[in-house]
Structure formats: structure tokens, C-alpha cells
Amino acid sequence: MDWGNVTTEDLVDALREVDWSSPPRPLSEFFSRFTVPRSYAKWNSRLKCNLYYYRTNYFILIVSVLILGFLWRPLAVVAAILTAFSTAFLNDSFAGTFSEKVTRTVRKFSPHLAAKMRPPLTPVIRGRPSARRAIYICGQPRWVFVLTFSAASFFFWFVSCGLLMVSWALVIGLLATILHASFRTPNLKARLNTFREEFRQVWRNYSEL
């Protein structure tokens, strides 16, 4: 796969749709080999490839840096958790898994309420959905949860007065991520993993027809 032809929008869509439950790459692989990219095109391709392949490692790295910043503002932990959920809801896989687990838990206590939390059926015309399948969480459109959690997180950020300090921690985490992704030489395993993800996506689209 030529990552140089992948746009930023395509990369964001791939990160939004991919399953984030995969374990992080081993540290021996994460800190294996570093080289300076020979051109801007090489750097651009390497950056996108590493961001996709080491996504879980980068997520853990940024969270670890943020935790160090939270030690100074304990109330900011609540705000960060709400922010993390509002961001995670944008991922289709996480939103579906979260909705399924919550509905399953509610069904144990109130089957009638759990029935109302089911997503509405998508109209089907000639064997195909009439529109792109919308994501629902507990029977509500996804944007309702994103907006609610975002508003709550903003309130706690304001109360904790730790937004500036956490912003610095976030900048440091993002800077470390970009530096690693820029100088970590993609290995053959990363390229093979990319092709496997492409095959799964093509097969998933084929099975939905």
C-alpha cells in the first residue's frame, strides 16, 4: 500500500472505523529501528503508516503523559474520562460495543427498557440499505452522547482549572507521537498488517451487499 496516496481524511476514517481493542505492539518492536526519512514524500508515507500500525501504543503513550499531568489536578481526571468517552464514541466499533454491553446489562433488570434502547431499523430497498447505516447508542443517535459527554467534560475542565496544564501534557504527548512516527522505520510486519486490514475491509463491504 502506498501511504503517500492516502489522504488525512482517509486516515482519520480508517482510525475511526478500525477495532481499537488490539493489544499494543511489543516495546522491543516499538523502539526497534529509527532512521531519518530521505524526503518529504517518505516522511509523509512513514508518518501515516506508523500512526495506523502503532495506534494503540501512541494512545497509551498520550494517556500516560496525561496521567502525570492529572497528578496536579485530581478533578481533571473526571473531565479527562468524559472527554475520552466523547472521543471514543466517534469510533464505530467502540460505539457499537458500548451500546451492546449497556443494553445487555439493562436487560437483566428491565427487559422493557432494554427493548426501547434498540436502534431503529434501516429501510432496505432491493436488498440494500437505502442510506448509510447511522450509528445509535442505547437507542439514541450517536451525536446525543458525544454532545452530552463533551458538555459535561467542558464543565469539569472549567471547574478544575487544569485545562492549561493538561493542554501542555497533551502537546508533549502528541509531539512525542509525531517524532516517533516520523523516525520509526516501518517494518515488513507493519506493511503486511496493512494489507490484512485492507482485505478485511473489502470482505466486510462485500458481505454487506
TrEMBL record:
Superkingdom classification of source: Eukaryota
Keywords: Membrane, Transmembrane, Transmembrane helix, Transport
Membrane-topology annotation of the record: Multi-pass membrane protein
Record field: transmembrane: 52-72, 78-98, 142-159, 165-183
Keyword match Transmembrane helix: yes
Cellular compartments annotated: Endomembrane system; Membrane
Function: May be involved in both secretory and endocytic intracellular trafficking in the endosomal/prevacuolar compartments.
Family statement: Belongs to the PRA1 family.
Protein's name according to its UniProt entry: PRA1 family protein
